[in-house]
């Protein structure tokens, strides 16, 4: 009887990892989703401001937020996206967000910790995430923490606020940066949340 005990334990362990009936196992609603693409919004002109086009929808197609034209600043804004997408600078016509295809008319965009829908006609361009990040610069902040290859051992830099680094490699929430002889890993996002004002175009 004792020789069957390991088999019984193994069977119990296998059963314990089986998803429960009705459990949502869709990776797009999990915290482990990996982003591979992002899209640039084609900021609509005032004459294109129609509810049927300029809305962000929840996954059940109810309206989450609308784009609005500010006649004073002459900007097309959607305040619900501010701080919740890849990059939000409407004054420069730059609104970027993590992207996934959905159907012929809509695509998925990441807003905060959830997916939303937007019409594809509002998309200006789609980029592969890693090569585009590696074409940008990382401007370090005084509060940044730098790490060695193990992502655990810290590296000090006395003038970190002066660092304007090339991005050399991307691993999930981490990027490898370089400025001259200085090389380190630093976090550029936490899950869906991109740390703002650190990623800059290499111009």
Task: Kindly describe this structure.
With 203 residues, this protein is mainly beta. It has two domains: 27-129, no CATH class; 134-201. The protein has helices at residues 5-16, 129-133; strands spanning 37-41, 55-57, 63-66, 68-70, 75-77, 87-89, 94-101, 106-111, 114-119, 123-128, 136-139, 146-147, 154-155, 164-171, 174-179, 182-187, 189-190, 193-194, 199-201. Strands 1, 6, 7, 8, 9 and 10 form a six-stranded antiparallel β-sheet that branches. The termini are far apart. Residues 2-31 have low confidence and may be disordered.
- Helix-strand pattern: HEEEEEEEEEEHEEEEEEEEE
Distance between the termini: 73 Å
Beta strands, count: 19
Uncertain segments: 2-31
The number of helical segments is: 2
**Average of the residue pLDDT scores:** 80
- Give me the secondary-structure category: mainly beta
Question: What's the shape?
Answer: elongated
In terms of quaternary structure, what is this? single chain
Helix share, percent:
under 10%
Main sheet characteristics: 6 strands, antiparallel
- Estimate the strand proportion: 35-45%
CA radius of gyration is 22 Å
Domains, number? 2
Give the topology, please.
Elements: H1 5-16, E1 37-41, E2 55-57, E3 63-66, E4 68-70, E5 75-77, E6 87-89, E7 94-101, E8 106-111, E9 114-119, E10 123-128, H2 129-133, E11 136-139, E12 146-147, E13 154-155, E14 164-171, E15 174-179, E16 182-187, E17 189-190, E18 193-194, E19 199-201
Antiparallel strand pairs: 1-7, 1-10, 2-3, 4-5, 6-7, 7-8, 8-9, 11-14, 11-19, 12-13, 14-15, 15-16, 17-18
């Amino acid at each position: 009887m004792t020789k069957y005990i390991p088999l019984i334990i193994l069977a119990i362990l296998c059963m314990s990892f089986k998803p429960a009936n009705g459990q949502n196992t869709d990776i797009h609603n999990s915290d482990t989703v990996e982003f591979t693409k992002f899209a640039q919004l084609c900021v609509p002109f005032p004459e294109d401001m129609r509810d049927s086009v300029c809305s962000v929808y929840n996954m059940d197609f109810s309206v989450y937020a609308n784009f609005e034209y500010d006649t004073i600043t002459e900007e097309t804004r959607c305040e619900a996206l501010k701080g919740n997408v890849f990059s939000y600078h409407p004054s420069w016509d730059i609104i970027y967000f993590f992207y996934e295809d959905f159907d012929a008319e809509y695509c998925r965009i990441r807003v905060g910790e959830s997916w939303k829908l937007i019409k594809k006609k509002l998309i200006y361009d789609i980029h592969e995430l890693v090569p585009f990040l590696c074409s940008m610069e990382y401007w370090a902040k005084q509060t940044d923490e730098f790490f060695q290859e193990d992502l655990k051992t810290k590296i000090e830099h006395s003038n970190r606020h002066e660092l304007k680094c090339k991005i050399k490699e991307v691993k999930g929430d981490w990027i490898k940066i370089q400025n001259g002889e200085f090389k380190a890993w630093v976090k550029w996002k936490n899950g869906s949340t991109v740390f703002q004002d650190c990623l800059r175009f290499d111009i």
